[in-house]
Amino acid sequence: MTQTSRRRPKRKSRSAGQLAKLPWKTLQYRHAPFELLGSDAIESIHRAALSILQETGMLILSTTAREYFRAAGFDTSPDSELVRFDSELIESLVQQAPSSFNLQARNPAKNLKIGDGHAVFTSVGGPAYVMDLERGRRTGSYAEMCDFIRLVQSLDILHQEGGGGFEAMDLPAASRHLDLFYAECTLLDKNWVPWTMGREQALDAIEMAAISLGQTPDDLVETPALCGIINTNTPLQLDIPMAEGLITMAEHGQASAVTPFTLSGAMAPVTLAGALALQHAEAMAGIALTQIVRPGAPVLYGGFTSNVDMKSGSPAFGTPEYLQAAQASGQLARRLGVPLRSSNVNAANAPDAQSAYESCLSLWGAISGQANMIKHAAGWLHGGLTASLEKLIIDAEILQMVATSLEPFEVNADTLALDAIHEVGPGGHFFGSAHTMERYQSAFYAPLLSDWSNYETWLESGSIGTEQHANRIWKQLLREYEQPPLDPAIDEALLTYVAQRKQTIDKAN
Amino acid sequence: MTQTSRRRPKRKSRSAGQLAKLPWKTLQYRHAPFELLGSDAIESIHRAALSILQETGMLILSTTAREYFRAAGFDTSPDSELVRFDSELIESLVQQAPSSFNLQARNPAKNLKIGDGHAVFTSVGGPAYVMDLERGRRTGSYAEMCDFIRLVQSLDILHQEGGGGFEAMDLPAASRHLDLFYAECTLLDKNWVPWTMGREQALDAIEMAAISLGQTPDDLVETPALCGIINTNTPLQLDIPMAEGLITMAEHGQASAVTPFTLSGAMAPVTLAGALALQHAEAMAGIALTQIVRPGAPVLYGGFTSNVDMKSGSPAFGTPEYLQAAQASGQLARRLGVPLRSSNVNAANAPDAQSAYESCLSLWGAISGQANMIKHAAGWLHGGLTASLEKLIIDAEILQMVATSLEPFEVNADTLALDAIHEVGPGGHFFGSAHTMERYQSAFYAPLLSDWSNYETWLESGSIGTEQHANRIWKQLLREYEQPPLDPAIDEALLTYVAQRKQTIDKAN
């Protein structure tokens, strides 16, 4: 159960024993979701959101987006960027969004189903910095970013790569995304998240994803491969790059996760109900835009409501408020019939106990809220400013355990073991019984990271703490990484695309 | 919300600022519990347990207990310690157990309700060692044990003290329990867990609890004050001290938490269904014994099923199997209509990320399984061999957050904040709005331990990690501890009782 079928690494002598990575496994919720709020309360938040959209409206900074909204019948003005949203019209548009969709991966066995009770874990994306135990926090290079992507590929518990982990600061800003997409296309055989800050980035992602799959952008319309992360600019703004990214994705049949960053007490009301009403309003506006551009376009409802520490203004994550917001967001997304995107987040400064308990509370909220895509599922530190290599491994262990716990165990004559219990009898021991011997090798979850040795043994073997152990594991994973096979013609086509686009960008700059 | 109303400490100059301890608050489940298994599966486990009790039976090592079972009509033999349990008879006895009961505390505001959707957090009890950041792991003294009890008193999130934290190894083994009970009676005003290894210990606990409450043991029969932890000796044995402890508690109307330690793969079948069937059988036998001794006696169903690492034999805690067993145990306890005792456990060797994520998974199981008493809720390390002072604080933070997340937030016109959202408008900020200013001081959970400062600030202030911060907090709590008022006559009576009993014990040894 816990041993992977990966080929052994070539540099076998440096291997420190096979790591207990869970093999690729899709996740499914088999139980009723947790309903934190009553249906009346959910309805109140929904109606409040409709009222915000109708009465206050949103600033839509992109002319193209405003034009789409105007053409769909919404209240726009030539002198203003404000759009007001008729409630019936926006509800009817949101209803056109599908309850689930699929995303292609280069390895078809790793295609994703988003929605309808399925869940995927997506690695961290977006941080400015990278950090590890030896080198501390720093801006990352392209080579380091590629290593991070290799680690994400190695961990089968991560169903989707989340956008490079961190920025490659040694590359020119204007064309950096091309190098990221090339790395994502070639170092991974799983689905990956593109950058979609504006039309150019989104188009490049679509072109390169199509090349990597041996398809054309037109092929991808019916079988999407990409999901962009679209953040509204809370409160009640949609900026130009995000609007253009969303529109480009929808035009090409690709997905967006519309995610307002509603930080209660700062960019959102100090009350959780108000912050969620704002989240719900902005999410509906974004979802509606995807449906105007292409009815039936795949889209997720992004829930990212947390709060600030009112003393310092620092954002908090993995708190009771975060947990509750994640649970309520599940209810709100289900109210709309749209898949939910949630996150595994923390505000810790080191991959220590705080980072772990805040992450676990985030995941508790996401899983009990039945999120369908859990972004930043592994590697997020410093409130999202940093991708941590050790936290990546710590999170992978937590995710492996959470995934395993979602599969109910079997209850039947074999597993009830009445004969074995009778045979062992009072005061006996099950270690040597036939029932145990037949099953022990695959009986239980085997940890990737956790050390269960007793204290004396642990002291004797050098008191290796969890962070230090995680450090050894990512190094071993990196040594053992093998690039998934890629048709050299596809690699060539990707390189050609990148080179041509860089030329165009260089000329423009 | 997060500031306590405690009087300021006398040595004010040494205080490092007021700690954000949640005030005393009872916990209640307001939602349907998570049902991991279908009702057919639960019924199969229940029937398997009945079959184990009827066909295989249990070794009941105590003559008194066997006599109770024989008198109730169970199948015993004069030549053997084996008891076989008629299914109908044991089911009818278990049905007599109440679905909830109350436990008195010296401070009536801290009386506990056990069962019927209520939950209490109980501090660690049972470890042989104590550990902290500076002094490492060691056997503890009585003075250190008293400090541990003072910390438990200081943390209002802990509803019940769990049995001293660790053993006072500088005191004679035969009378050590008297010193523990004296400390529990005098340093706490909350409910405490006694040791109940045999009749003498249990009787001493009852006598001293009665004295501390200004009552008699007879008074306690209808208004119990004590709950003993009774472990069966898995598989299928009940040893003499535990049987006598249980019987003595039930005779005096006091509660027991009957807790089989069904370690899957070692003392229980390698399959979780089998381990739970064994747990359920042993728990039913213990629960039935309490009802034979005193129909309607308060009792809990203890769920403590985990598994061993099949490579090393080490017990594992806070794993997917543990989480699932806790959830299923909730279903099994509800099947019997008896309150559930669960635990917050981990197998880590340091209060680091592993200890935190294993604890969080344990708590996830306990809370989603709707446990009514969560033992070892704070301070457990090394698979239960050690009470850790830093882990006590880390767990208190986690418990405070979990408790807060169990209270749904309000959704009404005030909290939906439509006026504030309209007033702030697109692109604005809520920091200065009237809606925020009126509410910000008590808006959000304030952490006891977590550090949300940004990385630069954190580095500048010395990179204090979570464990080190926890170390500072327990020291501050200890400095600020104030003993709850106690009638000097009661103190005198307790001291006299202890002195007399020590004389008797000394003579006997």
Percent of residues in helices of chain A: 40-55%
Overall SS class of chain A: alpha/beta
State the helix count of chain A.
Answer: 18
Q: Using a beta-carbon cutoff below 8 angstroms, give the protein chain pair with the largest interface and the number of residues from each chain.
A: A-B, 123 and 123 residues
Number of strands of chain A: 22
Question: On the 0-100 scale, what is the average pLDDT of chain A?
Answer: 95
Radius of gyration of chain A: 24 Å
Low-confidence stretches of chain A: 1-15
Shape category of chain A: globular
From the structure above, extract its key features.
4-stranded mixed beta sheet; 18 helices; 7-stranded mixed beta sheet; homodimer; 509 residues
Description:
Two copies of one chain form a homodimer. Chain A is an alpha/beta fold. The first copy, chain A, is 44% helix and 14% strand. Chain A is built from 18 helices and 22 strands. In chain A, strands 1-7-20-19-16-14-12 form a seven-stranded mixed beta sheet. The first copy, chain A, has a four-stranded mixed beta sheet with strand order 3-4-2-13. The N and C termini of chain A lie far apart (53 Å). Chains A and B meet through helix 1, helix 9, strand 18, helix 10 and helix 11 of A and helix 1, helix 9, strand 18, helix 10 and helix 11 of B.
